[in-house]
DNA sequence: AATGTGAATTATGAATGCATTTTGACGGCA
DNA sequence: TGCCGTCAAAATGCATTCATAATTCACATT
């Protein structure tokens, strides 16, 4: 019998606090829990049918991820998104995404490029039909695929954490036709860079792409700022 | 009466779990809790004289920071440092440090440059006397000051988190005379870039500087790898 | 009307207790 | 000797309970 195991598939049940973390993170990123609102422990406890102990552990984690703000003896809020936040987060995301482009070009395989090409075509179809939410879903998969191709979990974790903070802004609907067009053009360039493995150029394109996005988010924030 | 408050000095007592997080993080980064060892809750509870509830919250946070590994029902370990980790972490740190250099050149004030210049001179003195630990203490202050000058808390947080993971390697003693010389030369360049506000060049210098450091850490890891 | 006081209510902080899982020693057995 | 299965001890997961701080709201004061 062969005792040498293949790629070790680790079995790992999630504990309750971990599932809670994921579930609440989802709620925040989706916008079910809007930026700025209070998050009383009791509410979430009854909502999820759990006791406060694992829930509080989850809140601590989400706070370190920057999605919640905790104040001792005063509870938790969903972190607000301010223009200053954006000005901080986007440069960092830019640096990370640029790196992911460079690394992806080093490590990506032809089949992977093929899969991204498929996603790219899907995305263009959604663009033609102006299917905004489907467009964005595929769009996100493309960026995720590039991140995967970079073969760097540390990078992926850090990037996703920042991306989650930004994604809470429901800016998508705010994209102008012009910006949308520009974004698809940039995605065309992204494909070219991947296929020619031009890491230097890809990192620059991704950075510019993010600049474009920043403008859309900024605009959204201006249109949706709440007086609280 | 003037209702406009000056810079709002926020009073904020730390809660127990937060203090625990800081204390244990310190223990890990200092090497009091060595990479790979188990961290039973009970031990830390008796050590700090607290109950398990706040302690467990602290463990969760440190796990998301990457300093601990948690496995359901099996407890916590101090994360090991593998060569693969270094190959992941250093490129990301490089990207972040490069950004910090660029931003610092944009925002840094003359007095700040002056203070860094003072630190720089101190560091050179320690170098001349071969005072390794003092050298590193000041060295770290310089990098911290640059990070401060970048005026980006998100960047600072992310960078510090990664830096903490690396700092656990007690690689300092491992630095060769040659590398030490090279490091001080690079710091000379860093000062030049700051004084001329040459962000592009500074970001490159910082990246190279980090490459140098990576080699030292790699060497340390090779010399100190444990068969566990 | 604006501000101040204080008791009642509510929410969070932390300790304890119970259930479940893991660990590791021991002994049977091939 | 080496391999399993069993069971007690220990550790962790979660719920509950107690302690403490914050908030609310009624009422008094200016």
What does this protein structure show overall?
Two copies of one chain form a homodimer. Chain A has 228 residues and is mainly alpha-helical. Helix content of chain A is 69%, strand content 4%. Chain A has helices spanning 16-30, 41-48, 52-64, 83-107, 110-128, 132-149, 153-167, 177-195, 199-224; strands at 68-71, 75-78. In chain A, strands 1-2 form a two-stranded antiparallel sheet. In chain A, helix 4 (83-107) crosses helix 6. The longest helix of chain A has 26 residues, at 199-224. The first copy, chain A, is globular. The termini of chain A are far apart. The model of chain A is unreliable at 1-8 (pLDDT under 50). Chain A binds chain B through residues 12-15, 17-18, 53, 56-57, 60-61, 64-66, 71-73, 85, 88-89, 91-92, 94-96, 98-99, 103, 152-155, 158, 162, and chain B through 12-15, 17-18, 53, 56-57, 60-61, 64-66, 71-73, 85, 88-89, 91-92, 94-96, 98-99, 103, 152-155, 158, 162. Chain A binds a DNA duplex (30 and 30 nucleotides) through helix 3.
Strand order in the sheet with the most strands of chain A: 1-2
Rough outline of chain A? globular
- Given helix and strand content, the structural type of chain A is mainly alpha
Give the largest chain-chain interface (CB within 8 Å).
Answer: A-B, 34 and 34 residues
Cα radius of gyration of chain A in angstroms: 20 Å
Mean pLDDT of chain A: 93
Main beta sheet of chain A, described?
Answer: 2 strands, antiparallel
Residue stretches of chain A low in confidence (pLDDT < 50, at least 5 long) are 1-8
**What's the count of strands of chain A?**
2
Give the helix level of chain A as a range of percent. Answer: 55-70%
What fraction of the residues of chain A are assigned to beta strands by DSSP?
under 5%
* Tally of contiguous helical segments of chain A: 9
The multimeric state of the shown protein is homodimer
Order of helices and strands of chain A: HHHEEHHHHHH
How far apart are the termini of chain A?
67 Å
